[in-house]
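Dear U.,

For the methods section draft, I wanted the exact inputs and outputs in one place so we can describe them consistently. I've listed the two proteins in the order they'll appear in the manuscript figures. Please don't edit the token lines directly; just add comments below if something needs changing.

First protein:
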Amino acid sequence: MRNLVYYMAVTLDGFIAGPEGQYDFYPLADDMTAWIAERYPESVPTHIRPHVGLPVDTPNKEWDTILMGRGSYEPGLAAGADSPYGHMKQYVFSRTLAQADYPRVEIVAGDPVELVRRLKKEGGKDIWLCGGGNLAGQLIDEIDRLIIKSYPVIAGAGIPMFSGVFSPTGFAVTDRRSFSNGAQVTWLERA
């Protein structure tokens, strides 16, 4: 059965983006960028791949499906990419976007839990929950693994990693890696 993996960047105070969806304040480092391209090439948007030396047709290693809230989808749209992860099956959760306007992704207005449970039963690689915090909050009981890229930055306000109801959920750290910019990647499995 496939796993739902929440792979995201987060500040020290628990935000995945600023109040207006900003994410350009995360400190970049060449060693981390190269590692991401090697370890998780599918996480590099299709339209960005040529700019980081990653061939567009690089095979997916971990995930073949991506789930995005509207806020996670909009940066790609702003860059002119209506299919930011064209190398994967893309689901965008929105009650306001019309499918006819975005034919290269699947717009989902319904229950994300129902979709995830169906996807988990299908064959294929794992499913990447890209964000945002509202969608992650709705799917907290379905998340099997967390891969947290934590950066040494305090945002002060923004979009939380999870939003929703109080639901303490245990995870166990399975690995951790550090980079030259002070960021760490931590892998956690549902306890």
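Second protein (the one for the lower panel):
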Amino acid sequence: MNTLHPVSLHGGHSGQFCGHAKDTLEEMVQAYIEQKYPWVGITEHMPPVSDAFVYPEEEKAGLDAGYLKERFSDYMAACRHLQSKYAGDIRIYVGFETESYSGSLDFAKALENTFSPDYVVGSVHHVNDIPFDYSQHCYDNAAASCGGLDGLYAAYFDQQHDMIRALRPQVVGHLDIIRLYDPDYRLRLLKPVIWEKIVRNLKLVKDWNLILDFNLRPLSKGADEPYLSAPILKKACEMGIDIVPGDDSHGVADIGAHMDRAIEMLRAAGLNRPWRKPVRNPR
């Protein structure tokens, strides 16, 4: 039986470079080292394309798109510095997490070309340019723009499919985050019109040999399962898709908090092979 060491393929959001996180990036790297992670991926959010997509928390802090682009450049430089500084203690993969809204995919490609990250996590946090994961109010607005929750799910998974095809990210982040504020998500995910889109997206992940993020963030918020929910995890395992934990950490306190549980869940689902490391796919 393979020993599955704690790793994270999606996380490392720090208060230094993310308004809704805590602690410095170096403090987070040190925490991974203290907990004996052999390797970790750091994937800060990409900056917004324009001021129209600056989050309310950032606006409140007086930040604009220009500043956030400079901060992202500082993040990439700091992460490369830490990658070198701690090379004898841990293997750090330097990456970033995408957005998916008007203009963001082309901008994400430009960021790849400019900064040459080790890999990219392809994520969707907006539907119809509304940040559905920011609050219940935003989630409800996004659903209303789609004619209801079923329409929201359908639009999200279509948008995710478009993002994967456009960016071909090495890792697909929190595939079912669209369930975030929906207490009935277990039934909704399995509705044929929605489930067919999920399976279509999983097939693309498999065909392109990408990795799925087993995202632990919901466990830190009191949920009883990560992203991926049980039926999606089961289907992905049946399809032979590589799945790797991501703590989606937003501070030192998140690191390692649910890793043992995640590893046991993945073992129970039938995964028992060494974690696959991220390598950026050339287009």
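Candidate sentences for the figure legend, describing the second protein: The chain has a mean pLDDT of 95. The chain has one domain: 25-268.

Thanks,
Y.
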